Amino acid sequence: MINFLEYLIPGILVGGLYSLIAVGIVLIYKASGVFNFAQGELMMFGAFVVWFFADQIGLPIWISFLVAMGIAVLMGTVIERLTIRPLVGQPVLAIIMMTIGLSVFIKGFGLVALGTTWKGFPEVFPAAPLMLGDIVTSQQHVWSFAIAMLTLIAFYVFFQHTNTGLAMKALAEDHQLAQSTGINVNRSMRLIWILACLLATMGGFLLATLVGVSYTLGGMGMKAFPAVLFGGLESIPGAVIGGLVIGAVENVASGYLDVLVGGGLKEVAPYILLLLVLIFRPYGLFGLKRIERI
Amino acid sequence: MVDRPSGCYNVSYSQETAIVRTRLQWVILIAGLVFLFSVPLFASKTALNFLTFVGISVIAVHGLNILTGLCGQISLGHAAFVGVGAFTSAALTSKLGLSWWLTVPCAGLSASIVGLIFGLPALRLKGFYLAMSTLAAQFIIIWIMLHWVSMTGGPDGTVVERVTLGAFTFKSSQSMYLLVMGMAIIATFVAKNIARSQLGRAFIAVRDNDIAAEVMGINPAYYKLVAFSIASFFAGVAGAIFAPYAGAISYEHFGLMDSIWYLGMMIVGGMGSSTGVILGVAAIRGLEEMVMFMNPWIATTFPALQFKIAPSVPGIIQMLFGLVIVLFLVFEPRGLAHRWELIKASYRLWPLPY
C-alpha cells in the first residue's frame, strides 16, 4: 500500500503540470475547434525564456518569470495574428497542420538555442524532501502542484464569472452568432491564444524547476494530449482531472510494470490509456456527447 | 478547359480518361523515364544515394497522400508503419531466410494490419481522432521496437542484408537506385490510378462531405478503413526497401519527427495530387541536403550568437522545415503541384491571361 501511494502521489503532483497544458489545449479547442499540437513546444519555449533570463542574463528568477510571461503574451499575439488568422475559413485540417508546423519550428529553435544537453535550472523551491507520513515527496513537487492548481482555479473562475470568459464560451459555440451579439471575435481569439501561451509558460517554468530545461520538454508536454481526450475536449475541469489521472497512471504503471517489460513504460502508458479512451469513451469523462459515430 | 493541350478533342471515353493525351506527352514521358534510368551513368555516389532516399520517401508519402490528401484523415504515425514494414522485412529475411522479394508484400500486409489495429477505434469517429490514435500508435510502436529485443534488436537495431536476385546482389548505389526508382514508378502509377478510380472518388467524397457521401451510398467508415490500410501498405513497402538501403535499422529512423516530415512533404507538394508527392519529397529532401551542404558557411557566418554552443544543423533544418510548412500553408496551401498546374495553364493560354 505504501508502495502504491509512493507511486501515486508524485504522479498526481506532476499531473498538475499536465493539467496546465491540457487546459491550454482545451481553451483553444473550445474557442476555435483547433487542436493545438504546438502546446507542448510552447511550454518548452516558456521554460527556455525563463532559463535564458535567469541563467544567461542573470536576472532574479521571479523577474525572469515575469519577463517570460510578457514574452508569452507577445508569442500568443504573434502566433494568432500571423499563422492562425490567415487560415480562417480553411478546413480544420489545414489549421491543425499549421500548429504541427509551428511545433516543429519551435522545437528546432529549442534545439538551436539549447543544444542537446539538459540545462540546469536555478533552484526555485527548496530541494529538501517532504515527509507525508511514511511517504517521501519533494517540496518542489508539492509547490509546483499547488501553484498549478491555483492557476487553474483562477482560470475556471475567469471563465465562469467574467464577461470576457463568457464571451469566449460563446465563441466556442458559433463565431457568427457570437459576433452578432457584439463580441469582438478577433480580440477574443487573440486573448485565447495569449492565455494558452501564458498557461504553457507557467507549465514550462514549473516543469523546469523539477527536471531542468531541454529541447525535449515538448515531448513531455505531448503527454497532455491523452489528458485532454480523457477529460473531454470541451471541458476545463475534465482537462484538469485528465492531467492528474495521466500523471498518476504513468507513474503507477511504470512503478509496477516496468520490471515486467524492461522499462520505458512511463512514456507509453499515457498513449495506451489514450487508445482505451478512444475505444470505450471517445468523448471523455466530461465532454459533450457530440461525437457522431458513422 | 486548360487541363489539356490545345487541339485535343475527346472522341471516346478512354481518350477522356487518359493521363497521357498527345504524342508529345508520350515522347516526354518516355524520354523522362529513359533519363531517370540513365542517371547512374553520370551521377556521383552521393547524388545517387540522395535520389534513392527520395525514391523511398516517395513511396511512403504516396500512401500518406491517399489517406490524408484524398480521404482527409491526418495520420501522425506514418513513419512508425514504415518502421513496422522495415522490421518485418528484416526479420523475415534474417530469421526465416525468405528472399527479400517475398517479404515486400508481407511487410506491406503487416504494416496494414498494425495500422488497422490502431485505426479501428478512431475510424468510426468524426473529427481528428485518427490523428490522436496514430500519434498513440507512433509512440507505442517505437516503444515496442525498443523493447521487443528478440525481434528488433532493441536500441541497437538490426543489421539487414542486401537484396539478392538470383546471383546478383544489389549492393552498389547504382543498382539500389535502379531498384528503388523502379519501385517508386510502380508506386506512383498505382497511386495515381487509385486516385482516378472509383475507390479514389469514394475517398474524395468522404473527405469533402461524409454525410453527403453516406447519403449517396458510400460507407464512410468502410472507405476510411480501406484508405488507412492502403496507406499503411505503401508505408510497409517503403519500409521493406528502406531496410536494405540503410543496411542497419533501429527505432531512431522512424520517430515522430519523421512522421511530421512526411506530412510536411505532402503539404509542400500539394495534398491529394500524385505529382505533388514527387515535387514535395524532392523539395523537402533537397532543402535538407542544401542546409547540410551549407553548414560550414552557416558556422562561420553566425559566430556572434555566443550563448549557443554551435549552430546546430539539425536544429536549423527543423526550424527551416517548420517555417516552410507555415509559409506554404499561409501562401500556397495547395502546394507546388497547384503552382505547376498554374504554370502549365499560363503556358497553354499564352499570351492571353485566362
Please describe what this structure looks like.
The complex is a heterodimer of chains A (294) and B (354). Chain A is mostly helical and 294 residues long. Chain A has twelve helices and two strands. A two-stranded antiparallel ribbon of chain A has the order 1-2. In chain A, helix 2 (39-56) packs across helix 8 (185-211). The longest helix of chain A has 31 residues, at 2-32. Chain A is globular and about 60 Å long. The relative contact order of chain A is 0.20. The mean pLDDT of chain A is 84. In chain B, the strands form two sheets. Chain B has a two-stranded antiparallel ribbon with strand order 1-4. Chain B has a two-stranded antiparallel ribbon with strand order 2-3. In chain B, helix 3 (45-70) packs antiparallel against helix 11 (220-246) and helix 3 (45-70) packs across helix 13. The longest helix of chain B is centred in the middle third of the chain and has 27 residues, at 220-246. Chain B is globular, with a radius of gyration of 21 Å. In chain B, 46% of the residues are buried. The model of chain B is unreliable at 304-309 (pLDDT under 50). The interface between A and B is large, with 53 and 55 residues.
Provide key terms for this protein.
heterodimer, A: 294 residues, mainly alpha, two-stranded antiparallel sheet, 2 strands, globular, B: 354 residues, 4 strands, 72% helix
List the helices and strands and how they pair.
The complex is a heterodimer of chains A (294) and B (354).
Chain A: H1 2-32, H2 39-56, H3 61-84, H4 92-114, E1 129-132, E2 135-138, H5 139-161, H6 163-173, H7 175-180, H8 185-211, H9 217-222, H10 224-231, H11 236-261, H12 265-280
Helix pairs in contact in A: 1-5, 1-6, 1-8, 1-10, 1-11, 2-3, 2-4, 2-8, 3-8, 5-6, 5-8, 6-8, 10-11, 10-12, 11-12
Chain B: H1 13-17, H2 23-38, H3 45-70, H4 78-95, H5 100-123, H6 129-147, H7 149-152, E1 158-159, E2 163-165, E3 168-170, H8 173-196, H9 198-208, H10 210-215, H11 220-246, E4 248-249, H12 256-269, H13 274-293, H14 295-301, H15 313-331, H16 335-349
Antiparallel strand pairs in B: 1-4, 2-3
